[in-house]
Amino acid sequence: MTKQSAGSRLDTSRPHPARVYDWLLGGKDNYPVDQEVAKRLPPESRLSALRNRAFMQRAAAWLAGTGIDQYLDIGTGIPTSPNLHQIVQAVVPSARVAYTDNDPIVLRHAESLLAGTPEGSTDYIEADVRAPGAILEHARTFLDFGRPVALSMIALMHFLPDEEDPCSLTRTLVDALPSGSYFVFSHGTTDEHPHLADSVKDTYRKGAIPLRMRTRAEVEPFFAGLEMVEPGLVTATRWYKDSPAPAEELSGFYVGVARVP
Ligand SMILES: C[S@@+](CC[C@H](N)C(=O)[O-])C[C@H]1O[C@@H](n2cnc3c(N)ncnc32)[C@H](O)[C@@H]1O
Predict the structure, then answer these.
(1) How far apart are CA 225 and CA 204, in angstroms?
(2) C or N: which end of the chain has fewer Cβ atoms within 10 Å?
(3) Confidence at 209, pLDDT banded by 50, 70, 90
(4) What's the whole-model pTM score?
(5) What residues are in contact with ligand 1 under a 6 Å CB criterion?
(6) Rounded CA separation 73/42 (Å)
(7) HEC states along 66-122?
(8) Residues in CB range of 133: below 8 A, 6 or more apart
(9) Ligand 1 center–CA 146 separation, angstroms
């Protein structure tokens, strides 16, 4: 594994999305300021985080099964086993995985936790999705963009308000992928439980974390121009490839995998 920009400082005086999410997943890499936000969220949030994570794992396993051996994951979060590289390298040991996050705490853990298989390797880029050019520039030094790459952005873009134009940022990243690549995406929504919308948003807002949950109609444009893989754009608990989805459960996320034509 290699890393970049290690010089950042960790700010434990205000909550960070990676650490709030870590608490929701039952992790230990969070501070009282993060716990304060996480504990005020509706209890359903913990299940949502787990179900989102489970989608990532199913999608990664499916992609590796198709033979994809290069991955660019943006908004990686604090490592929680199994991580994306562990899943894909179990299927394709030589797979290369570039992780990216803008939170210094992820970098701190990346070094110890993101060790790849002897045949494959992982890389870590400390960067912001709002600077897609910089991410691509570094990713090109590690991944071969002449061959298919899977770009994953899981539970990331709801931290970007509309003014940041998250769809255009996504487009810039997807446009850099060659034909046959894949885009794996999940995005928070309160469509399934509108009564929780205000409390989730207010809790994050009080913690000074911007949160922009989006409706299905607002999530669809992230996939513009791409070929949706079955079962299409669905809630996290409906995305299954090799087995039937369990009875409908609340997930709090829209998810999808799409192929670059
Ligand atoms: C909810 S966590 C999701 C982690 C992981 N993708 C998953 O689904 O298990 C969101 C992650 O996105 C990162 N993040 C938030 N805004 C970001 C930005 N502008 N650029 C890069 N990463 C960002 C946070 O630091 C956090 O680690």
Answers:
(1) 32
(2) C
(3) confident
(4) 0.94
(5) 17-18, 21, 52-53, 56, 75-77, 101-103, 106, 128-130, 154-156, 159
(6) 28
(7) CCCCEEEEECCCCCCCCCHHHHHHHHCCCCEEEEEECCHHHHHHHHHHCCCCCCCEE
(8) 172
(9) 27
